């Protein structure tokens, strides 16, 4: 399918399940918190469907007054192994390095807390590809609010975001793009969120991350 999109002034990416796979570590950390608080553990399928918003937005609802305790358990468990279990998704390195080498401004907007996000990018050696890596807690509020997108592109001095692309794998990413007024590009099926995706209507829905390169070509820019 041919998509007719404006050439990107900046291309922003979600992190987890868009560029990297850390689901096993997320599940282990979340289940450590859940079981410590007396709740049943979540299956991997439940984690993939239910883990979308940032911890500071979800844990108070999940754990009530004990949420700081659950937070500390989650982060202690996650930090213990996340750099060793971190895996780049297929084509993520090629896509981001190809775009960066051509001079496109790239950024990351994630609901993973900022220090953990930047530690993972450093582990992969990807800092050179991104002008800004924005995680949960870096902006006043987290996605789906538009603030992280504004922060990620702050140095560009933009007055409009209609030629900023945001690439993600979930409805929350499309919603964030909508709030910021930028182009929403969905990668993958967003399983379990089909109705919400249809309602949000991203400008493009791609089978694979590598298809982003073709999308940039179609926009009239050379890779």
What is the element layout, followed by pairings?
Blueprint: E1 10-13, E2 20-21, H1 23-36, H2 44-50, H3 55-63, H4 67-79, H5 82-85, E3 87-88, H6 92-101, E4 106-113, H7 114-124, E5 132-136, H8 147-152, E6 164-168, H9 171-180, E7 183-187, H10 194-200, E8 204-206, H11 211-218
Parallel strand pairs: 1-4, 1-6, 4-5, 6-7, 7-8
Antiparallel strand pairs: 2-3
Helix pairs in contact: 1-4, 3-4
Describe this structure in words.
- By secondary structure, the chain is of the alpha/beta class.
- It has two domains: 144 residues, HAD superfamily/HAD-like (Rossmann fold, 3-Layer(aba) Sandwich); 63 residues, DNA polymerase, domain 1 (Orthogonal Bundle), CATH 1.10.150.
- It contains eleven helices and eight strands.
- The strands form two sheets. A six-stranded parallel β-sheet has the order 5-4-1-6-7-8, sandwiched between helices.
- Strand 7, helix 10 and strand 8 form a beta-alpha-beta unit.
- Helix 3 packs across helix 4.
- It is globular.
- The two termini are 19 Å apart.
Oligomer: single chain
How large a portion of the residues is in β-strands, by DSSP E?
15-25%
Largest sheet: 6 strands, parallel
Report the structural category. alpha/beta
Question: Please, how many domains?
Answer: 2
Features:
223 residues; alpha/beta; Rossmann fold; DNA polymerase, domain 1
């Amino acid at each position: 399918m041919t998509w007719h999109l404006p050439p990107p002034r900046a291309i922003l990416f979600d992190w987890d399940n868009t560029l990297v796979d850390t689901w096993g570590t997320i599940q282990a950390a979340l289940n450590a918190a859940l079981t410590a608080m007396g709740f049943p553990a979540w299956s991997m399928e439940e984690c993939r469907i239910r883990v979308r918003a940032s911890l500071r937005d979800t844990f108070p609802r999940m754990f009530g007054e004990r949420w700081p305790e659950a937070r500390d358990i989650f982060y202690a468990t996650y930090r213990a192994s996340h750099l060793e279990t971190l895996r780049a998704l297929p084509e993520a390195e090629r896509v981001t390095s190809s775009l960066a080498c051509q001079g496109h401004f790239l950024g990351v907007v994630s609901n993973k807390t900022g220090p953990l996000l930047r530690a993972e990018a450093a582990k992969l050696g990807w800092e050179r590809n991104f002008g800004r890596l924005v995680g949960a807690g870096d902006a006043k509020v987290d996605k789906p609010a538009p603030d992280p997108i504004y922060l990620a592109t702050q140095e560009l001095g933009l007055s409009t975001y209609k030629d900023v692309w945001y690439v993600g794998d979930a409805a929350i990413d499309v919603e964030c793009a909508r709030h910021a007024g930028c182009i929403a590009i969905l990668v993958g099926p967003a399983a379990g969120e089909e109705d919400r995706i249809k309602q949000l209507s991203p400008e493009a829905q791609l089978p694979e991350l590598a298809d982003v390169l073709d999308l940039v070509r179609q926009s009239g820019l050379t890779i």
